[in-house]
Amino acid sequence: MNSPLSYLLSSKKKRRAIVLPIGLLLVLLLALALVGKGTAKPKLGLLEVQGVIMDSKNLLAKIKELEQDPEVLGVLLRVNSPGGVVAPSQEIYEAVKRLGSKKPVYASLGAVAASGGYYVSLGAKKIYASPGSLTGSIGVILQSLNASELLEKIGLKMEVIKSGAHKDEGSPFRAMEPEERKLLETVIMDTHEQFVAVVASNRPINQEKLAKIADGRIFTGRQAQALGLIDEVGGIEEAISALKATLDLKGEVELVEPHDLEQNFLSNLKLESWTRLATKLQFGGLMFMDSRLVNP
């Protein structure tokens, strides 16, 4: 029979046998964490604006994620878009601008960054574009389809009951009246002035020069740089290098992409945006978009 003393000694040995390995494991894990932290690459956020801008929800969530991540030191905004709907383009621009007040944001223009695509880029601290990038297209467009003659040929006529004379402005079922055209032109010009004001507040271009080029024309990256619409001619690597220099970062960096919001089946097939675009064009959506640069 064991004595109480021998029992206590035996229990202590057992506890040491359990505690020592656990302690060594914790020390090892801590050492690995410290080594990993010391060798981790600095992180830059990568925010991509791709295709026609129809909605801002997903991009706004991504911008917020990059803004709140303390490990993301700066953000590269990569734009490859012919533009899109006015209000979402404005919301994205404002969000990029707010992000830039927290950490540096540099824009890199891809093959196309025109109209609304250029608009969102204006929120960045500096804009880079390749020599052959297509950008500019400062302007607004409102399109309305007139199918009245076709409907007449097949014997169809739309009957409209409306609360006011202008409730069906831009209807595809009849020709546009001169008064309606004038009213819609005031909407277009007001929105155009908003676009021009954003360019003027972010780019070193005098008002007279800006008024001449803000007529919807497109420019190559090289032309845009000469006009002051962008800062430097260069690709995505040059933009990353400049952003690193601003942050005084040496060596390689890790590009971190924020998470996408949950997408449905149509979104995954990229059909939802095209469906909404077709609807906007059919019913006269107000667009910061260059339809000449839209690829199916």
Automatic annotation (TrEMBL):
Which keywords does this chain's UniProt record carry? Hydrolase, Protease, Serine protease
**An example Gene Ontology molecular-function term:** serine-type endopeptidase activity
Q: Please, which domain of life does this record's source organism belong to? A: Bacteria
* Record-annotated Peptidase S49 domain positions: 100-249
Which Gene3D superfamilies does the entry mention? 2-enoyl-CoA Hydratase, Chain A, domain 1
One Gene Ontology BP term is: proteolysis
InterPro entries, sorted: ClpP, ClpP/crotonase-like_dom_sf, Pept_S49_SppA, Peptidase_S49, S49_SppA_C
Name the family the entry cites. Belongs to the peptidase S49 family.
- What is this protein identified as? Peptidase S49 domain-containing protein
Q: Which organism is it from?
A: Candidatus Lambdaproteobacteria bacterium RIFOXYD2_FULL_56_26
